[in-house]
Design goal:
This protein is α/β, with parallel strands linked by helices. Helix content is 39%, strand content 19%. The chain is built from 14 helices and 15 strands. It has helices spanning 19-27, 77-83, 96-107, 125-135, 146-154, 172-180, 184-193, 215-227, 242-251, 267-276, 288-295, 330-342, 344-357, 361-375, and strands spanning 5-10, 31-37, 57-59, 61-64, 71-74, 86-90, 111-115, 140-143, 162-165, 200-205, 231-236, 258-262, 279-282, 300-303, 322-325. It is elongated.
Length: 382
């Protein structure tokens, strides 16, 4: 290319966990990327970091209901129309400006890429059908992972679409640096200081709210203790269900087997907990927590109802890098956790390899570029 490809990304926010992904695409000399986004999503606790990227980001005003139930972004329409070669538009039709700007650009012969999740846990099936009807107007669809892209290509109305999965993940280089900061001697001393020596540690990391169903894991602990009397379940996170879960722990006589750690955000403080555990267990809908665990070489245990999970569930293969169980079967959940503990070294090694080679921000940036090139008619596949 003689000059960089001019790319507009129209989205809601740039969340903190996507910082490395955007740093990488902004740094690509063959792309000139500008992001149009709002300051925050009302009603959602997602910190936005768009201000750290200076002139690469244009902040727009948002009008609408909380949690994007219905809304509108006040975009600079004329500037968008005149200055870009490729347009990525967030594929949420509840933000009505997304629908209008994408359709108008498409009708004008512009190169438009729809970006989003093919399926979201708990989504309304009728609304999902409506969203996909809108998506069928476009030749280019950028999805959360390659499994979603394969599914889309097989769906009616998408036979001619170019679909690429970004393989959504985290900044694996930051996780690897955090691991390097905890060599064996330091980690052993930390475990002694925390009273973890000789304990079989199972970890959870998520907000304490009803959708994550942590009470189900409390029900498993007596049976887990029968095999591992030294079992300790450590929970990273805080939320509205904290007091209720702690009261249930006390009432069940499990205070010696459960530790509530509260919210921890810094990677270097999270690292020793992940490195000391045998498995991460998540009874609710799992998303990026799965890739976070994989990045540390930690197998994941969760239920097998794929339609109730976020797209990142596609990275889990039962018996290879984690274990799954029927969603409402407490005995099967216990068995899956025990199997993951027994097989932790093998499952964890496979999990880490997957995070390092297929699901991370480096891979995401490469696939974003591939989609830009494909939409611009310059080839490009990841």
């Amino acid at each position: 290319m003689n000059s960089p490809l001019r790319v507009a990304v129209i989205t809601n926010i740039i969340p903190a966990y996507r910082a490395d992904y955007f740093r990488r695409i902004f740094a690509d000399s063959e792309l000139d990327v500008t992001v149009f986004c709002q300051r925050a999503i009302p009603g959602m606790n997602l910190p936005s970091i768009h201000q750290t990227f200076g002139e690469r980001v244009v902040e727009v005003r948002y009008t609408g209901a909380a949690r994007e139930r219905i809304g509108w972004q006040h975009l600079p329409w004329r500037y968008l129309w005149r200055h870009f070669d490729v347009y990525f538009v967030h594929g949420n039709p509840r933000v009505l400006s997304n629908v209008l700007v994408s359709v108008l650009l498409r009708l004008a012969g512009k190169r438009v890429v729809i970006e989003g999740q093919l399926h979201t846990a708990g989504s309304n099936p009728y609304f999902e059908k409506l969203r996909l009807l809108w998506w069928r107007l476009f030749r280019y669809v950028y999805l959360y992972n390659e499994r979603e892209a394969e599914r889309l290509r097989r769906m009616a109305g998408f036979g001619g679409a170019t679909a690429i999965g970004m393989n959504n993940g985290l900044d694996q280089s930051a996780i690897d640096r955090a691991c390097a900061d905890w060599p064996a001697a330091r980690l052993t001393q930390w475990q002694q200081d925390e009273g973890l020596s000789g304990r079989t540690l199972v970890l959870s990391c998520a907000r304490l709210e009803s959708k994550n169903r942590f009470e189900r894991l409390l029900d498993c602990i007596p049976a887990l203790k029968a095999r591992h009397p030294n079992l300790l379940w450590c929970v990273i996170g805080d939320g509205p269900q904290a007091a209720e879960l702690q009261a249930r722990t006390t009432a069940a006589g499990l205070r010696d087997n459960v530790r509530w750690l509260g919210a921890i955000y810094e990677e270097n403080r999270l690292a020793p907990w992940f490195l000391s555990a045998q498995a991460l267990v998540h009874p609710g809908a799992i998303g990026l927590s799965l890739l976070h665990a994989f990045g540390y070489g930690l197998p994941v245990v969760t239920h097998d109802a794929g339609g109730q999970h976020m797209p990142e569930f596609a990275a889990l293969t039962n018996g290879t890098n984690g274990r799954v169980y029927p969603r409402e079967d407490t005995d099967a959940m216990t068995s899956a956790i025990l199997a993951a503990i027994d097989e932790s070294p093998q499952l964890g090694a496979q999990a880490k390899t997957l995070a390092q080679t297929r699901f991370n921000t480096c891979i995401m940036a490469a696939r974003f570029k591939a989609m830009c090139l494909a939409a611009a008619g310059l080839g490009g596949r990841p």
